């Protein structure tokens, strides 16, 4: 950024970055020098604040839209009680807040909201143990590849991944599982843990648009393989251009928007006399790009009008065992959700909506889902529940009533068996002293 800004008046705009945590400081630096920043991948809600980031713009829509789609999807799936875990950066915090806000609109309750420190296994461990203790069975996991190994390891130890009855949903921070799996010591185990995950994010490149961009990219590579970009050959740069994703189109359109805005200001005498800026021109211009109609709002955010969001399933490939990212549904503001095929769910082998985890994370504490009644029923005396299964109280504690959310300690008496609903009284003229475990008559004195 410093090098770019030192180019002085020749710098009209900075295109980038992908990470919201980078785009924020970049935009602040640009603002000092009156240079607008146009991001193709930063989606954090905080960047919409023009008081803090007056010269920040983006060709990708903010997380508020994506989080709304995810929350509505949870409602459609009847996942009305979910746990959320997120990394401690502007993207993670913003996405979690946006999801909670949207969830309230669709009747989706966040029963546990856990932030973790990226790169800190102990922090990740603490966050996922809290989700487990809260009874979360639907996990909204806001994560990047860099933390996924720790997330899977800890969740596996807790019995939360590759388990029937759990569902994992992640946004656009983790979109290519095989790239991540390639760096893991036990790919087969990791694939099993990721099978059945669901991901949803904006998806402008599909159909004709994708075909056209792939063809144009192939032509460009064939004509420019011998050229260099800042000393790096096109031949090495384009080795990873075999697959195009959503960010490819947002990047392409960001470059065009910045170029057109700068050109408009520099080539128009009227624009210069009116003191128009590259920032104001980027918000004025509207064109049909590879990501659809590019139209920025007054605060610099991309309008979500006309954009499609894809719903993906991490699906094991029967032929080679690899994880395919398979599109099984879409969402847009006109048609809502459209389902293309059946997904698979964690811990299951056969795709099918009939295998959707029924009742998980839906029941309030003190109850459990009853398959026969198809309803949440209160746990009987002697047991307790956080909203999952009814568990027997351990020795030394009891659950005297229906629908207990925790067991209570015996006072004066003792509980020498599991699953007791009342304490056994001590022999006459004796009692279990306060602070004792109250697990045996031998404690009476």
Helix/strand structural class: alpha/beta
Give Rg in angstroms: 27 Å
Which term fits the overall shape?
elongated
Low-confidence stretches: none
Number of helices: 13
Largest sheet data? 8 strands, mixed
Distance between the termini: 75 Å
Biggest sheet strand order reads 5-4-6-7-8-13-14-15
**Helicity, in percent?**
25-40%
β-strand number:
21
Give the mean pLDDT. Answer: 86
- Percent in strands: 15-25%
Structure description:
By secondary structure, the chain is of the alpha/beta class. 32% of the residues lie in helices and 20% in strands. The protein has 13 helices and 21 strands. The model has no long low-confidence stretch (mean pLDDT 86).
Question: Summarize this, please?
Answer:
With 445 residues, this protein is an alpha/beta fold. It has helices spanning 2-5, 20-32, 63-76, 90-106, 121-134, 145-157, 177-181, 187-194, 208-224, 234-237, 246-267, 269-273, 278-284, and strands at 14-15, 37-39, 56-58, 81-87, 109-116, 138-142, 167-170, 198-202, 228-229, 232-233, 286-289, 292-295, 309-316, 323-332, 336-339, 367-370, 375-378, 383-384, 391-392, 397-398, 408-409. The longest helix has 22 residues, at 246-267.
Question: Which helices and strands appear, and what pairs or packs with what?
Answer:
Layout: H1 2-5, E1 14-15, H2 20-32, E2 37-39, E3 56-58, H3 63-76, E4 81-87, H4 90-106, E5 109-116, H5 121-134, E6 138-142, H6 145-157, E7 167-170, H7 177-181, H8 187-194, E8 198-202, H9 208-224, E9 228-229, E10 232-233, H10 234-237, H11 246-267, H12 269-273, H13 278-284, E11 286-289, E12 292-295, E13 309-316, E14 323-332, E15 336-339, E16 367-370, E17 375-378, E18 383-384, E19 391-392, E20 397-398, E21 408-409
Parallel strand pairs: 1-2, 2-3, 4-5, 4-6, 6-7, 7-8
Antiparallel strand pairs: 8-13, 9-10, 11-12, 13-14, 14-15, 16-17, 18-19, 20-21
